[in-house]
Amino acid sequence: MIPVQFDYAAPTTLQEALGVLAEAGEDAKVIAGGQSLLPILRMRLNAPEKVVDLGRIEELRGITDEGSHLVIGAMTTYADVLASSAVRDHAALLVEAVKTVADPQIRHRGTVGGALVHADPAGDVGAPALALGAEFVITGPGGERTVPADEFFRDLFETAVGEGELLTRIRVPKHTGWGAHYEKFVRVAHQWSIVAVGATVRVDGGSIAEARVGLTNMGSTPLRATAVEQALVGRPATEEAVREACAAAAEGTDPPSDLNGSADYRRHLATVLTRRAVLAAAGA
Amino acid sequence: MTRINVRVDGVTYTDEVEPRTLLVHYLREQLGKTGTVVGCDTSNCGACTVHLDGRSVKSCNVLALQADGHEVTTIEGLATDGRLHPMQQAFHECHALQCGYCTPGMIMQAIDVLNENPKPSEQEIREGLEGNLCRCTGYHNIVKAVQQVAGTGEGERA
């Protein structure tokens, strides 16, 4: 299978990229690592007139420490995240989730920013970004704006990034010393989340002091299980106490029904996986 | 058509390609390097795995243009002076193939696994090869071959 013909541009600076996008308008499609886009183009589910490759823009790549936040360039690959001690120390949930993405070859090419803008509800970085309260820096012809995580994901494959704009970096508040786990339920050969749950918790004296829980593929966007987060605070990190708090994991969700499972089955999975994720994150 | 410069298996090529040309098609159809095969064409099976700047990628999921200015190693670039690469030799000795279709990608990924982690456990080898499917389900001897090269586990040469 080969894609429909398209024109190609590979700008080397952000300014140049924004110029190319402005000129091409709605007929352009941005390619980051291409690990989601190229299958789409090959299957001809999309046929853009122009593909704008961000792969040669150095300034979009890399992870920097800005004190209270880690700043992850949108073109940073999954493999770069896994190799970063800063991410492991300050945003462990992201590492736990990225480990489960597809396979090593895909993780060498695929990018964090590309996955976030693609916004597949079964993608594995959205829920952790949401749970960690990440901020999304979006750059357009008019300059930069910063969008909080709970306003970034709009709908199925739709984010706050508008036409002519690019996600340039993700600012992740440090969660230093927080335990983290990403519990993913998949068919092994596919690694595509049927449901997954990312949990990160701060344990203090055997009790859960703070908790963040993100849900993958429980609706058209990643979701945060705020009822569970609140119910966990102050509880001992024990199976029984956590089980009770996680019973509300599917509250307010709208999971899909498909060949892999019905919506009801996914709601059941969400409570089980949330319990497992929280217990593992708490080191229990 | 767009011009690219790519170094493949140690030789520099300058070619005109259509932007939509996938790296695997460029390797096979323009360079004649048919050692790299197309398996599933959906980025699942890993049969088309090559190294791009030393890291494994699925060449059906990379545009030839994205390799412009970069270095590609295929299964055809592994042997030196007529001698098989140790991983090729180990696949041969351990009978790590049945129909052989997944073998080029499997070998390229197995080398990447050991580049990342020279002494992997059996579990780490299996996880490192999770993006490569063997339609004969002959994983057992594939894992043994990787262990032989790593000098770990049962596959280690006596």
From TrEMBL, chain A:
Keywords: FAD, Flavoprotein, Oxidoreductase. It comes from the Bacteria. InterPro entries: CO_DH_flav_C, CO_DH_flav_C_dom_sf, Diverse_Substr_Oxidored, FAD-bd_PCMH, FAD-bd_PCMH-like_sf, FAD-bd_PCMH_sub1, FAD-bd_PCMH_sub2, Mopterin_DH_FAD-bd. PROSITE patterns: FAD_PCMH. The keyword Flavoprotein applies. One of its GO terms (molecular function) is FAD binding. Residues 1-177 form the FAD-binding PCMH-type domain. Pfam families: CO_deh_flav_C (PF03450), FAD_binding_5 (PF00941). This is Carbon-monoxide dehydrogenase medium subunit. It comes from Pedococcus cremeus.
Automatic annotation (TrEMBL), chain B:
GO terms for molecular function: 2 iron, 2 sulfur cluster binding; metal ion binding; oxidoreductase activity. Residues 2-78 form the 2Fe-2S ferredoxin-type domain. Pfam families: Fer2, Fer2_2. The keyword Electron transport does not apply. Pathway: Alkaloid degradation; nicotine degradation. Keywords: 2Fe-2S, Iron, Iron-sulfur, Metal-binding, Oxidoreductase. PANTHER family: OXIDOREDUCTASE WITH IRON-SULFUR SUBUNIT. This is Carbon-monoxide dehydrogenase small subunit. It comes from Pedococcus cremeus.
